[in-house]
Amino acid sequence: MSKEPIRVGENGFRTARIMTEVRKQRRVTLRQLALKLEAAGHPIHYSSLSQMATGRRRIDVDDLVALADVLDVAPSDLLESSDSVTTCVADVTTVRYRDFSPRLQDPAPKQIEGEVLLDDPIYLRVETADDTYLIPHVNVISIRTHHEPEESEQ
After folding, report:
1. CA 137, 24, 5: angle at the middle one, nearest 5?
2. Measuring CA to CA, which residue among 131, 94, 97, 136 is closest to residue 116?
3. Residue 118: how many CA atoms within 13 Å on its side-chain side?
4. What is the model's pTM?
5. Would you call 133 helix, strand, or coil by DSSP?
6. What is the C-alpha to C-alpha distance for residues 129 and 43, in angstroms, rounded to an integer?
7. Neighbours of 71 (CB within 10 A)
8. Averaged pLDDT in 10-residue chunks for the chain of 154 residues
């Protein structure tokens, strides 16, 4: 049995995005946040905070409560955004991206086809027939929309 890392799911990505938004609203850098967490008795290195913010590391419940405490919000505020988000959907699209998972030394570009949803400022959501992928925008190499040729009437 292989030991695959547990993937960050859609809720984890949303929580990471909200945490980043709240942190930026408070004008707190990742290093400052790490210092605040250490002072509160829950040390998390700033590089680990960066991994949480980009969806490369899961946020556990203890981390969530500590983050909420030092950011002066309720833990539930980090789980759900009160902002309504407009969704823009593209047709079937090919997305080339790099997977910067910790298990990969030199990530080769990957390619995926599916419906692209542009509803998040940090992550690109690609829905395929089998799964939903959340790809940080910084990892995206290219996006190409496939347009069906129009049939001509004869």
Report:
1. 50
2. 94
3. 9
4. 0.54
5. strand
6. 41
7. 19
8. 68 86 87 95 93 86 94 86 47 67 60 71 73 72 62 47
